[in-house]
Amino acid sequence: MAESGAIVDGHCDRAFEPVRHALADALASGLEVGAALAVYVDGEAVVDLWGGYADAARTRPWQRDTIVNLYSVGKAISAICALRLVDAGVLAGSARTRVPSDTSAPGARSDSPIPTRASRSATR
User: Fold this and answer.
1) Active-site residue 110, yes or no?
2) Which of 11-20's residues contact partners 24+ apart within 8 Å by CB, and which partners?
3) Whether residue 109 has pLDDT greater than 80
């Protein structure tokens, strides 16, 4: 149990205890009903935490294997992939992405550098 009073189960390396506390705080504040988080460093699980409830009525505690729908994760995953390619030297950080003009909103930028796209600060 974390200091906030929210129950967070699972494993967390000592160096990542602030992550456990942040999850507990989010659950205790009502910001999240339930959540799970896993972090791997060099292939080793350093954080594998879960807590809260799996339903809005707060009747089903979140379990390690709770199944949930994921929404709006495609852009984040694409950004991570692109930035890893930049880090590996396979893709130039100055490379630009282009949105076809027929799908651009009036005034929207039709091309943006990879880091701008990855940060979601591009207008389209």
Assistant:
1) no
2) 11/45, 11/47, 11/48, 11/49, 12/46, 12/47, 12/48, 12/49, 13/46, 13/47, 15/46, 16/46, 16/47, 19/47, 19/49, 20/47, 20/49
3) no
Q: Which of 4, 72, 104, 121 is catalytic?
A: 72
DSSP-derived pairing of the beta strands 111-113 and 44-52 = unpaired
CB 19 within 8 A of CB 37: yes
Torsion over CA of 46, 2, 76 and 104, rounded to 10 degrees? -170
pTM for the structure as a whole: 0.62
Q: Which residue has the higher pLDDT, 116 or 36?
A: 36
Q: How confident is the model at residue 48, as a pLDDT?
A: 98
